Amino acid sequence: MADDADFKIVGYEDVEAKEFGDEAPGVKIRWLIDAEADGAPVYALRMIEIDEGGNTPDHSHPFEHENFVVSGSGEVMIEGNWHQVKAGDVIFVPPNVRHQYRNAGSETFKFLCGVPV
Amino acid sequence: MADDADFKIVGYEDVEAKEFGDEAPGVKIRWLIDAEADGAPVYALRMIEIDEGGNTPDHSHPFEHENFVVSGSGEVMIEGNWHQVKAGDVIFVPPNVRHQYRNAGSETFKFLCGVPV
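ok -> structure tokens follow
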């Protein structure tokens, strides 16, 4: 926890980028604001970074995603249909909806992804 | 509510920018993902845009802010102390902490601001 009433200010690139694992080739995640480390009471904020050719798994879960595309261009699959997205786009993936993200360009596709803690 | 399992994809500039009001001169807010309009179950995502010379009120409330600076440069006050922030910075303002935001440059200072619904 930080000092001074536990607030936090950090450049996103100064937060460690962890490999997602075999189910998400070319994908890294930075936990920007976390429940355990930062005391976020309601939701955690992550930066997802997908290299050229990479993708997250095709899956669903009982919680939502709230995304904001920071850079690059990609595609989001919702219930089997693919949608193009680019920097400045906002994506709301409701709970229990099948979804997947993939890079559609040569630049790293970076987007914020909020999830309940 | 959107079709197709109520997902939403929208460019942030296509969401209406509403004037914040007299207590926040030069400030506009876009409700990117909302409880009422979009069915966000846990938290809402807003874009706050502060013109040159503008600022939000000096205040506190019993819920947190999770911020990501999208463009421009600004300053965040936490419990009376001002901190410089720029594009790519992440800010966590815990519940019940006094805070205020202001533009510190000539470009519009834009940051995402998540709050519990």
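Residues 39-110 of chain B form a domain with the Jelly Rolls fold (CATH 2.60.120.10).
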